[in-house]
Structure formats: C-alpha cells, structure tokens
Amino acid sequence: xxxxxxxxGDVEEVTQVAEAVRRLDGYPPxxxxxxxxxxxxxxxVAVDEGVVVGHVALHRTSAEPVMTLxxxxxxxxxxxxxxxxxxxxxxxIRRRGVGRLLLGHAVTExxxxxxWPVLDVAAQFGAAIALYESxxxxxxxxxxxxFRDGTTVLEADSLVYLGPRPRDQ
Length: 169
Fold this sequence. Notes:
A hairpin with a 2-residue loop joins β2 and β3. The longest helix has 15 residues, at 11-25. The protein has one domain: 3-Layer(aba) Sandwich (Aminopeptidase), CATH 3.40.630. The protein is of the alpha+beta class and 169 residues long. It is globular. It is built from 4 helices and 7 strands; from the N terminus they run βαββαβαβαββ.
C-alpha cells in the first residue's frame, strides 16, 4: 500500500471510490468536486497494486460552527487549524488499515505544517467515529449547521473531533 499526493490523473478513480462509498454509506451526501475549491490545501490517495483505493484531504476550513468549536476547544486561532476531509476507503478493501493509514498521513502532514488537525463527521457515521476514536482523536462536541446541496438547504448534525496536537517546535 502506497500513499502519494493526489494527481489530476486520479480524478476518475477517486470519483469511483467516492461513488461506491456514497452508495453504501450515504457519504458524501452529494458527490463534491474533490479536485477544486479554495479550501483544498493538499490531498493524497492510497494506491494498492496500481489502483486508487482511498483518499484524504486537508482543507483550510469547514463550516463556521465547526471552526468556532475547534478554536474554542484547542485555544488555537482558526488559521492554525486544518481540517481533515473527504476520508474515503473503497468498500471492498475496508478493515485492512487503509483509513487508519490515510488518517495518520493527514495528521503527519498537518503537523509538518505546524497546524492542529480537526475534523467534523456526521453523527450517524458510527464506523468513521469508531476509527477516529480508536486513533486517539478527542471529541470536542456536537454542532449543527446548514449547507446547500444543489438548490436545497439541509441541516447537518455533526461531531467535531480534535486530532493529536502538534509537538511544540
């Protein structure tokens, strides 16, 4: 298993993984443009025998209630926080450590950048929550916020998690 920077040529395979995860879990609720947007700081894929089987990204921000709770819980300014986002693992390869590998890679990269990793997860995604907690992430608390899905505005009930704090430099 290899983790490498996501490349433009990965679009089709990452989209296939996202579609498979969405059909099984309902996440993400809509297929986002994983490759664009000012919030994307960096992204990586897990590759097994030449096939993309997972994805994770670091985003500069998340919804305002998420960032407010993370800022209050860490005591760090928003610009020193980074959001682990779009952690996706192809269903046939789950429970083989790919999610843990990708999450660990994102944490390491956040720390290299001297940022504290945080994330938000929809409260109904128990398997994802179990992964975060088993990796030592600490729950900061619940948040609710509105988001636009096409022309519809939906409410998200999420939990905010704090990853390992970077060591003092």
